[in-house]
Task: structure prediction
Amino acid sequence: MFIKRMFPKRWAKVLAWTAAALAWGSVAVAAAVKSEAAAEELAIPPVRPIQPPAATTTTLAALPSQPADGLVIIRYTPVAPPPPEVIVRTVAAPARSGGSSTPVVKSSGS
Result:
């Protein structure tokens, strides 16, 4: 069904626009790569004097000792769940009188 609507002139238009889009995209990518390369060539890193590394000390938290059979014991204390929330909903039904009743209207589900 789709092929029947694609006349030769229409195929030519589709191919021309596709080629134009690919050419434009290629030029845009090439220009971006060229500008990045030029920026890297021009960028001269600043010269900083060499400083000796600063002495830093880090303290690690104590880990439990590993048993001989290779298991690591991790202690986990679960938190108690919060108490359930009590929701009270009071609905008052309309009082019914002798012979008259309120008609029930059903929704169409809109």
The chain has a mean pLDDT of 77. The CA atoms of residues 64 and 74 lie 8 Å apart. DSSP finds two helices and no strands in the chain.
